Sequence to fold (390 residues):
Amino acid sequence: MKATRIAEGVYWVGAIDWNLRNFHGYETEKGSSYNAYLVLDEKVTLIDTVKEPFKEEMLSRIASVIDPAKIDVIVSNHAEPDHSGALPFIKGIAANAKIYAAAGAGVKDLAAYYGDLGYIGVKAGETLSIGKRTLTFVPTPMVHWPDNMVTLMTPGNILFSNDAFGQHYASDERLDSECDLPEAYIQARKYYANIVQPYGMQTGKALSALEGLAIDKILPSHGVCWTEHIPEILSLYRSWAAGTYDDTAIVVYDTMWHSTEAMAHAVEEAFLACGLKPRLYDLHFCHNSDIVADAMTAKYIAVGSPTLNNNMMPSVASFLTYFKGLNGNKKKFIAFGSYGWGGQSPDQVFEALKSPKCEPLLPAIKLSYKPDAEQLAAITADVTAALKGE
Ligand code: FEO
Fold:
């Protein structure tokens, strides 16, 4: 397999995972890539590696431009195994290579995974000359692990951003200027929502740290590289990190005999009446990771569950766990559900949603058995009144 030239002396030597469909619970319908980059300078430098099963693919791409044993420097921007899994393998081939990682968490995490490979810890602003080029290390802790850092290479103004600005998007095109750009934006949003979203404050700080730097290329560790649309992706990240709302409202539910579904539509009517754009998700058909991507910019979320064996439906419990772990901005919520005789689920949904970031718009809405038109109209009226009272 061949390396892809990205800039003078800079090559993509990663791997494409066309068949990845699940990344720790995140549905990756477009696959992914693990991007490693090779810089040919006085010190031959490898930026990040790939997931372990793809190590031979990376090796063959490196070997298409240089003998892999000649690598002098390996930068590990992040220890998560999708980027470090092939590190021991490549270190075994390039025995004299020095491995640089964030001082503290980066070195500690790599040692925990792979033992002592002689890591060199680097601190904020520390530089490393590799010949004509200089690497500057910028820690970005909690975007999205404690060890994350990015590496700026000058001249050339190339930011090796690791997970930041990435997308789970398998493609033979390496650049934003060549790929299906709308798809890249969709996948960048889904990636942010499912990986980075809980760390908006840290992302804001990381963006501020990059603010004054001249950046001509952003080379992430997943998906396509940003070369012609850097202002756009930076602007999207600023907006997501700030928790900016749009005019959508999210309605998520499961249903046994269509009663909770009918209640979901009654809530939908209220959102419409207030000029919002409701989006409905039946958990029989919709994946948690797609819902949180859409929910990221919504101010309102409604979640409904029938009562099953004195509990909310397992699908709803799963969604609430996933949503609560990721939600990054303040939202107003509505809990609702139908029941036969127990009726516990709406209150359980209410309690599960309540948190410093999610406040109730009104008390839990409950109806027994099949709701009639009058009851549904009352739900629409109550939710509309609560929305208008905001
Ligand atoms: Fe792509 Fe945090 O690993």
The mean pLDDT is 97. Residues 78, 80, 82-83, 144-145, 163, 221-222 surround MU-OXO-diiron (CB under 6 Å). Residues 181-196 form the longest helix (16 residues).
